[in-house]
Amino acid sequence: MLTINNLSIKYGHTTVIDNLNLELASDEILMLVGPTGCGKSTILKALAGLIPIAQGEVFHKSWTANVKQQIAPEKRNVGMVFQDFALFPHLTVEKNIGFRLTDTTQADRWIKTLGLEAFRHVKPSNLSGGQKQRVALARTLAHQPAFILLDEPLSNLDAALKDDLRWEIRTALKAAGIPAIWVTHDQEEALSVGDRIGVLRAGKLEQIDKPEFCYSHPVNRFVARFLGEANFLSAEIATGKNLIVSDIGFEQVVEHAQLSGHVDLLLRPEDLLVQEDEQGNGKIVSMRYEGSSRLYQVEIGEKLLKIRTHHDVSLQQGQSVSVKITTTRPLTVFEQL
Angle CA(253)–CA(259)–CA(262) in degrees, nearest 5? Predict the structure, then answer.
């Protein structure tokens, strides 16, 4: 268990992390996401003991770090995995992973688990990017840290490798039973790998929850936009909590709605259905082919909606279409700006 209480970090007189509070469960993978410069990597450096704490404390069962007690990095038993791999170029895979270990049992375990057996005696210069990252992860796991910090570990890899390797890393972390905080700028990576997601903005934690809840029920517009494409459609919550969307002619009961009257309804591109219809309520403005899907921009009145379809759905620019809301999940609304 790792607990962070009221953590603040400053660079000079500038507050970079402001009053951060969170707990990391014993085998949890927490993804931290946010715009460039929001403080993601700074949090990792503070947890590793690489930069001092300005306020608050970091508590682990074997140590507590605070303003008066800055625990040195080597006394924290923290594992780190970097985007640039940080391997010793003159050492083989086997020696990189077993560096400073007197008992190589764990090194052998992770060499086998991560498919590195054939590369035991190979040096990093002869490895691919994916293989280097497996070596870096194996080295960290072999040292059995209390928790692991991963700083954008897949950002230097090509798209074809990322999907498989993110799941290999998740599987390895779960097999080791070691909790981890994983920083990424890739929303898809965060949503698919993490047990929870923490969304940061300007050093503050905007929301922390399960990926599906952050995506479907963001606490504000910033989180909604950061975790994917977001449509905001004018709506009205009438008596009895009936949600009425005038532009599409849709009604649904909104659960736990705290607002009334005119609101903005959050709709994800996959919440909508678009079909060819000469008498329809919309017009195709543009289309982006994504391989397994297509993303359309559809004009309805003065509003542009993003709608994602299967790649087989082929509509042309300027074509008249009808748009419907198809999702059956509870919908999220925000106060109109």
Answer: 85
